[in-house]
Specification:
The structure holds 2 protein chains of 2 kinds. Chain A is of the alpha/beta class. Helices cover about 35% and strands about 25% of the residues of chain A. In chain A, strand 1 and strand 2 form a beta hairpin. The termini of chain A are far apart. The chains are: A alpha/beta, B mainly alpha. The structure holds adenosine-5'-triphosphate and magnesium ion. The site of magnesium ion (MG) has 5 residues of chain A, from helix 1.
Chain lengths: ~240, ~290
């Protein structure tokens, strides 16, 4: 049984479908990249998984159970964490409050301690308002917030978009480490090459459909994927 | 000839009522995301039920509790019957609906309590001089009660889990939901607090002035002004702006006369909208 199973998923924000039949699976312990050009529907797919897309039809199973009818807060309670592309922290809440506000955490104090240990930059400024944080700190807080309830799947929408080049590498390292803590990852990325490099498999979306998919290494060496979707090979 | 400390003191007392109404409005705006024009008439309802309770039992404390519960109950009912059904539609739809709710509340109050002016039966007390400012003990009691209520609301917002959830939903509803915050619970808390604050504000204003059908409605413009001046969605800003507006209105009366108080409120509103669109105390960080 796959951790996440998506079949013929369609839907969007109103009358017009943005997703035109997406099929995708993610096994427990995997990191899977979803790449694609601007407007391909990557963020829309992420929203469909976490429950924020207004119109969705098709199959969406998490741990073998259909979750399409569940509101976002109950999908989160089932074990799906989400870091949106923009607006991924509560700006007027402090760092600590951003973590405390997460619902359904068994031992809140202990869990918060763990996460603040894992993100020392946050621990130093725990009373600071999230709105005053730098891009990198904000991203760390968004990660910590999403990890607060110990999810089994993290859906990350362009986690490196707002980061400086040096911090991008750190962020991918952090993502690579997640499966060791029992967290599988679906990561939407513009930096497809770097993302595939830490992933097991990848999907490339185009026009709301899966255009290509396969092992990350295979996609990275595929000429068609390279020329159409991933930018030129580094060496060429 | 005018005594400025006296005007400031009067303005602050007046400003407390504006502050409470503005707080009720700004909370609803930041969480339910529409300007609730029924707030004024929820105040009126609190003034009437408080008065009825006081004349039946003689207890002002009990009257205050009843006024708070009245405001909360009406607001919860309006949410359940009307506002909730319009969530997700254009803001104007909710605004117009809230005006409708306001008229329904006023009609029910009119049928129940009549249309004539009523007063709280409170023994008149002699004003005393405090540092050259003339205030009645009643003024001080009302101000104390309002200050207590404001402190309680801010305590809830900043020190309790439900308050934290309310502020999270105000920041970003979708992010709150994917963080496991249940919107129904937050809406329940919002309408209880916003309605309770309005109900109590109405009763306090009724004690200070007279209870009549337009009591709350006539507070709506200054209250909206304060909510905007304070930076819409900022509870602290709304309270500060409410006090400021009360003082500005009082200070201006020697110059422009009592009848132009509202014009002063409007002028202040226009000035701030043109000069600082995010309000006097608006949030620093930009929109996303
Ligand atoms: N809130 C919305 N309401 C209506 N249409 C939307 C909304 N958000 C996105 N869209 C549309 O859906 C399509 C896919 O957008 P989406 O954000 O999923 O793309 P993306 O692949 O994430 O692109 P990017 O790389 O720019 O983030 C676009 O045509 C976009 O205009
Ligand atoms: Mg996107």
């Amino acid at each position: 049984m796959s951790l996440l199973e998506i079949a013929d998923l369609r839907g969007g924000y109103g009358e017009v479908d943005i997703l035109n039949g997406v099929s995708l699976t993610l096994e427990a312990g995997e990191i899977v990249t979803v790449a694609g050009t601007n407007g391909a529907g990557k963020s829309t797919l992420a929203k469909a998984i976490v429950g924020l897309l207004p119109v969705v039809r098709g199959v969406l199973n998490f741990e073998g159970q259909g979750i399409l009818g569940l509101p976002p807060e109950l999908r989160m309670a089932r074990g799906i964490g989400y870091v949106p592309q923009v607006a991924n922290v509560f700006p007027s809440l402090s760092i600590v409050e951003n973590l405390q506000v997460v619902g359904g955490v068994a031992n809140q104090k202990a869990r918060m301690g763990e996460l603040l240990d894992a993100f020392p930059a946050l621990a130093q400024r725990r009373r600071a308002r999230a709105g005053s944080l730098s891009g990198g700190e904000r991203q760390q807080l968004a990660f910590a917030r999403a990890l607060m309830a110990s999810p089994r799947l993290m859906v990350l929408d362009e986690p490196t978009a707002a980061l400086s080049p040096k911090m991008v590498a750190d962020a991918f390292e952090r993502i690579r480490a997640l499966p060791r803590f029992g967290v599988s990852v679906l990561v939407v990325e513009q930096r497809a090459r770097q993302s595939l490099a830490v992933s097991d498999r990848g999907y490339i979306l185009d026009g709301g459909k899966v255009a290509m998919s396969g092992a990350a290494s295979a996609l990275l060496s595929d000429d068609r994927a390279a020329s159409l979707y991933l930018g030129r090979h580094a060496g060429r | 000839m005018s005594n400025f400390p006296q005007l400031i003191a009067n303005g602050l007392v007046q400003g407390l009522f504006i502050a409470m109404a503005a707080l009720a409005i700004t909370l609803a705006f930041s969480i339910a995301r529409f300007p609730n024009a029924a707030t004024g008439d929820v105040m009126t309802a609190g003034a009437y039920t408080g008065l009825a309770t006081q004349s039946a039992t003689g207890s002002l404390i009990l009257a205050g509790i009843v006024a708070i519960f009245t405001g909360a109950a009406i607001s919860l009912a309006a949410d359940r019957l009307v506002f909730r059904k319009l969530a997700g539609r254009a803001v104007v739809a909710s605004l117009v609906a809230s005006i409708g709710v306001a008229f329904v509340i006023r009609a029910v109050l009119g049928v129940t309590f009549g249309l004539s002016q009523l007063v709280y039966d409170i023994p008149l007390t002699r004003a005393k001089l405090y540092w050259g400012v003339r205030l009645t003990p009643l003024d001080l009691q009302v101000a104390g009660a309002v200050a207590l209520a404001l402190a309680l609301v801010f305590g809830i917002l900043h020190l309790t889990p439900i308050g934290r959830q309310m502020r999270a939903v105000a920041d970003d509803r979708d992010l709150a939901r994917v963080s496991g915050v249940r919107p129904e619970r937050v809406m329940l808390a919002l309408w209880m607090i916003s309605g309770g604050v309005a109900g109590l504000a109405g009763m306090m204003l009724g004690i200070k002035t007279v209870v009549e059908p337009e009591l709350g409605w006539s507070m709506l413009l200054p209250a909206f002004t304060a909510a905007i001046l304070g930076g819409i969605g900022s509870p602290g800003g709304a309270v500060a702006a409410g006090l400021l507006l009360g003082v500005v209105q009082e200070m201006s009366t020697p110059f422009v006369g009592f009848n132009y108080k509202l014009a002063i409120a409007f002028a202040a509103l226009l000035g701030v909208l043109l000069w600082r669109p995010s309000g006097l105390f608006g949030k620093r960080e930009g929109v996303r």
